[in-house]
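Duplicate of #3305? Posting structure anyway:
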């Protein structure tokens, strides 16, 4: 599974009375699907997943899956405090057709979350999960920072393909990237090296309408393939790409330094309000233009630090309202922004409209 690129961790829209506003969820997903992001993360921290009932989580996952375009990687946030509940939501996500699950570190009993506990938790989930697993480390919310050594040990598990690191420490990313260089996996990608997940390849897009059929291009008698390694699955030209343990960063203000340290992309809250601005940093870095990537990073650093970092979900949702998405209210105990804070967000995002 290829995890390179930018993935907005979409918010959950609410009516003023706190009920989930599914029509606005559809609106947001449809619009993100038209941007250059690699995929979407549903029920992450920014999605207020911890505020939702189990029934609401399942319905949000279902609606987002139904609306998203087929070419976007779909990541489901399924981490709950116990392994058994995490697996239940993971299995449901697999049934819906998600591509990968993001499992945050258990943290309520953080005083006894020793390395052995984390190793047992993630190995149990990964052993039984029908989908590839990503570790999710978000100490700003959980108060628990998973040690790099634990991540490195878990990286050898064949069903743990990467992690979202939201601790903000680029040197930790560098350490983990270097210590997991021995991990080598082959993933299916398109001819142009975009992600091609099993869900995408099952879609009956070929002329014969048969999903999942793999045909060697050289034997079709048609146009010459661009590479002997290219095959066709459901009308999609695919090839294999070697990847390692894939680390994505969780803080937009740290995107460029994290990419330089070994990250391959970002699941960024700020991308909910400004997906293209975040993508431009990644694209410049991918093209090897470090100076342009640095300038693009500087453009958003102050805004993302203040809006999504310090103001949190209410600030981010107001930024979404400004940029044509539906942000709306957060759920209590999160409060709406004051008029002064709204004016500050407007100023910070004045030249970040996308």
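Output from current build:
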């Amino acid at each position: 599974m290829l995890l390179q690129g930018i993935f907005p961790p979409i918010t959950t829209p609410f009516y003023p009375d706190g009920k989930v506003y599914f029509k606005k969820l559809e609106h947001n997903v449809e619009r993100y699907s038209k941007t250059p992001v690699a995929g979407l993360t549903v029920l992450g921290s920014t999605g207020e997943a911890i505020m939702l009932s189990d029934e609401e989580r399942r319905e949000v996952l279902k609606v987002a899956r139904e609306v998203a375009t087929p070419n976007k990687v779909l990541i489901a946030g399924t981490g709950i405090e116990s392994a058994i509940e995490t697996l239940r939501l993971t299995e449901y996500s697999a049934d819906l057709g998600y591509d990968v699950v993001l499992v945050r570190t258990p943290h309520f009993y953080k005083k006894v979350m020793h390395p052995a506990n984390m190793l047992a938790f993630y190995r149990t989930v990964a052993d039984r999960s029908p989908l590839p697993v990503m570790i999710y480390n978000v100490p700003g919310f959980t108060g628990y920072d998973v040690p790099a050594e634990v991540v490195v040990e878990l990286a050898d598990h064949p069903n743990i393909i990467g992690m979202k690191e939201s601790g903000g420490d680029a040197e930790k990313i560098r350490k983990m990237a270097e210590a997991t260089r021995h991990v080598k996996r082959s993933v299916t990608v398109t001819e142009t090296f975009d992600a091609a997940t099993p869900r995408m390849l099952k879609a009956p897009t070929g002329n014969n309408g048969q999903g999942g059929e793999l045909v060697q291009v050289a034997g079709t008698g048609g146009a010459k393939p661009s590479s002997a390694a290219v095959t066709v699955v459901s009308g999609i030209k695919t090839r294999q790409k070697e990847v390692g343990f894939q680390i994505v960063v969780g803080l937009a203000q740290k995107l460029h330094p994290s990419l330089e340290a070994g990250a391959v992309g970002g699941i960024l809250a700020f991308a909910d309000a400004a997906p293209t601005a975040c993508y431009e940093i990644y694209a410049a870095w991918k093209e090897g233009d470090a100076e342009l990537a640095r300038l693009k990073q500087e453009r958003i650093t102050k805004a993302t630090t203040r809006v999504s970092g310090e103001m949190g979900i209410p600030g981010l949702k107001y930024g979404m309202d400004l940029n044509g998405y539906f942000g709306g209210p957060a759920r209590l105990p999160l409060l709406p922004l004051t008029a002064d804070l709204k004016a500050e967000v407007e100023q910070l995002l004045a030249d970040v409209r996308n």
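Confirmed duplicate; merging threads. Confidence is low (pLDDT under 50) at residues 205-227. DSSP finds 13 helices and twelve strands in the chain.
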